[in-house]
Amino acid sequence: MRNPTIDTAVIPPARRPRKPAATIGRGAVYALMLLAVLVVGLPLYWMLIGSLKTLTEIRTFPPTWFPQEPRLANFTDAWNGAPFGRFYINSLVTTLAGTALEMLNAVFSAYALAFLRFPRKNLVFILLLAALMVPTQVTILPNYLTMARFDWVNSYQGIVLPGAAVAFGTFLLRQYFLGLPRDVIDAARVDGCTHLRLMWRVVVPMSWPAIVTFGLISLVSKWNEFLWPLVITNTLEMRTLPIGISYLLDSEGNTQWGTVMAGTIFVILPVLIVFLLAQRFIVGGITSGATKG
Amino acid sequence: MRDESVAGPTMAGGVRAANAARPEARAIGRLRRARRSEALLFLLFIGPNLLLFGVFTYWPMIYNAYLSTVRWDLIAPIKTPVGLDNYRYLLDNATFHTVMKNTFVFTLGAVGGSLLLGLLVALLLNQPLRGRDGARTALFAPTMLSGAAISIVWVYMFDPRFGLLAEFLSWFSLRSPNWLRDPQWAMAAIIIVYIWKNVGYTVVIFLGGLQAIPKDLYEAARVDGAGPVRRFWNITLPQLSPITFFLMVTSLINSFQAFDIIKVMTDGGPVDSTNTLIFYVYEQGFVAFNAGRAAAASLILFVLMFGVTIAQLRWGERRVHYA
């Protein structure tokens, strides 16, 4: 979020002399841009200072813009207010396993669709893409019943497996694979390279940006997933972070907001860090997916 | 799959023995075997994915259609067949009518709002400004964050007694409505949060589209004396139409599935004022244990989504300008 400073350093300043009217116009444009960033950033700032306020300070009006006497105990209160250690483990296990499965599925399926011959291959491709049209709410109840039959309610495989199938990622990677230089792949084939070797030694390394982008997006969406983990788990110990956080809320209206904001930071911080570190991959990948696809 | 792998070599072996004397036939046999092993590899690679889709997407669709014709509480050993009663119930039910209306209002507000605001901000960021890459990243960040967690932050901000929005309104001497407890305001609050969370995505995609428009088109228009407004209507919008179209389809599908914000902020209330179709499906299935009605409602939602997507594709074919 602090990137504007970095970017100002990189982009050389424009040196053309301007008319006063143009300068005012530019000022207005900058003000609007700042406003947009402020509007988007404000809730995150509010969460941060809320997590440091005492309940008395939170309940004063007008609200304070800086915490008067920062209270770090909100974080320990939040951590002890619900089994957050357990939530973290659940979220980590299901997110990592789900992402790994999605990536493997996407790479193998995309490779098969791009490079292997198969009768009526297009039908297989359409079968995969058609799954994109089926919304979660149609599958959620039958999937719950399937899981109940396998006795997988309240289990990691119950949370992970329905999300392990990949349609869109397969489609994206297939497009990317087809765009790789043909002669490199043909040369490897002529040299007697097996398909598995070709995939791991040539195709995957050459497609690294696309695979990383897809992996990151998959990681983030699994971490944030809400509806399915909500219905497939029903004990406190199996809840993931996005669901566990609401245990801090008080239905009687006596919510300890400082503690709750500290809890939301537990959920948001890991993703925010991943995003800020990898934003070039994520934002760039999403743009090219839409504009070239 | 296993059968084939056993049968494959034996059959090929038979062919090889019969044609041992003729080299070209042997070559054909080898080719055929290579083809077959390649097809086998294809199935091996894509099989797990297809299997998962079969079990968790295609089979549920069929089973869901069946469930929509029974009465069942998810526990009883017997599902009572009721024909189309579940659909009849929904079509006559006042709550379901409210749900449909809510879904329409939410979709219109959420999709329309994100697209319009997204386009405006993208136009803003499409100018040579310092720090605009940073602004783009900042605007995109909320789309990456947990909807459940962020909704909790917004509940705090919407609080009419000490919330941030009450503070803003007080600057204009306005009293804050009781956003989440007032049926008149709850849906507006949900839409605001949805737009806040998703507008960054439309900004990023629109910006990508704007930057792909060839600069010489604008130069030519300027030479012809077209002002900024005309350039926008005659160049930017038509050139952007494939992107707008893409965003309309994806935003619509996403907004139909918006659940976490509603569940956390209002739980569908007050008095069903934020109960949308997806929430209704969840409520009927997992709170009221009414499998038949949940299934019927979800099928109605599916048909709606399907219809809208097809309609958009049709409309898009005629209207979208592909460069």
Give a short synopsis of this structure:
The complex is a heterodimer of chains A (293) and B (323). Chain A has 15 helices and no strands.
Secondary structure blueprint with pairings:
The complex is a heterodimer of chains A (293) and B (323).
Chain A lengths: L2 H8 L9 H31 L4 H4 L14 H9 L2 H32 L5 H10 L5 H15 L5 H5 L7 H11 L3 H9 L4 H12 L1 H17 L2 H6 L8 H4 L12 H36 L1
Chain B lengths: L1 H17 L4 H45 L2 E2 L8 E2 L3 H8 L1 H32 L6 H13 L2 H12 L5 H8 L14 H26 L3 H9 L4 H29 L3 H6 L11 H11 L3 H29 L4
Antiparallel strand pairs in B: 1-2
Helix pairs in contact in B: 1-2, 2-13, 3-13, 4-8, 4-10, 5-8, 8-10, 10-13, 12-13
How many separate domains of chain B?
2
Strand content of chain A: under 5%
Radius of gyration of chain A: 24 Å
The best one-word shape of chain B is flat
Tell me the span between the first and last alpha carbons of chain B: 45 Å
CATH fold node name of the largest domain in chain A: MetI-like fold
Helical region count of chain A?
Answer: 15
Number of helical segments with 4 or more residues of chain B: 13
Structure commentary:
- The complex is a heterodimer of chains A (293) and B (323).
- The two termini of chain A are 28 Å apart.
- Chain A is mostly helical and 293 residues long.
- Chain A has helices at 3-10, 20-50, 55-58, 73-81, 84-115, 121-130, 136-150, 156-160, 168-178, 182-190, 195-206, 208-224, 227-232, 241-244, 257-292.
- Chain A folds into two domains: 3-74, no CATH class; 82-248, MetI-like fold (Orthogonal Bundle).
- Chain A is built from 15 helices and no strands.
- Chain B folds into two domains: 2-48; 85-319, MetI-like (MetI-like fold).
- Chain B is 76% helix and 1% strand.
- Chain B has 13 helices and two strands; from the N terminus they run H-H-E-E-H-H-H-H-H-H-H-H-H-H-H.
- Chain B has helices at 2-18, 23-67, 85-92, 94-125, 132-144, 147-158, 164-171, 186-211, 215-223, 228-256, 260-265, 277-287, 291-319, and strands at residues 70-71, 80-81.
- In chain B, strands 1-2 form a two-stranded antiparallel ribbon.
- Chain B is flat.
